[in-house]
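Listing S7. Sequence submitted for prediction.
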Amino acid sequence: MPADFTLNDATTLPALGFGLYKVPAELTEQVIADGVAAGYRLVDGAEFYGNEEEVGRALKHVDRDALRVTSKFWGEESQSRDAVLRSFDASEKALDTHIDIYMIHWPRPARNQYVDVWRTLIELRDAGRVTTIGVSNFTEAHVQRLIDETGVTPAVNQVESHPWLPQHDLRAFHAAHGIVTQAWSPLGRGRVLQDPTLAAIAERLDVTVAQVIIRWHLQLGSALIPKSTHPERLRQNNDVDGFELSEEDMSTIARLETGQRTGTHPDDRQ
């Protein structure tokens, strides 16, 4: 099982969790049961995913104390303090448990309100209502502004990252500021799995292409949240301790970088 990261708030983050984006509500409880059975200790959810009530029901049937649970503030309609508090209250009620990690889902920079949203997350943390606060889809400039204007550095920045989009500069910025990089879409929404270079590495190592990519993330020093609704794939994705990518493998994968995104650029979501 991959190791934990120690965060800048002195808590820990499992390096490998599983995401619930686009997991249908009717499958969510079973996916969580399968994920916990496969050894995961981080459940990554969000207000926007529309399945938090099902997450809450599932958490009643597993060892909740062994897990860290993430939710995120969507903020499409409003980014006011009251809107953040209402959203947090709604997620807390739906999950029916303490939220371990709460993030700003998108900065929505054209609105110029994300610093105020961050101040509200700090307020929630200081009140003991959430343990760890972080951000998602923030660029270096967005994060730097949070630090400069509030003095509080996010513990985690969850961003799109995969072999086509490794985000090396952002990772270096995070490392310099004690922020853990957590990759969403770590398999490029499944598209990167078709790459023949990765397939050749996987065949030589007798592992799946997904396992190669997950191992690549971990060797870069990144946390990640791959998603699957299939029990066997969940198990395989968490079984990456039995092999290591060589320096040559890492160099080969580095040549796959194109900068191609499978999702929205942070500056484009408003």
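Caption to Listing S7: primary sequence and predicted structure tokens for the chain studied. The chain has one domain: 4-189+222-227. The beta strands are 4-6, 12-14, 18-19, 42-44, 68-73, 99-104, 130-136, 156-160, 180-184, 223-224.
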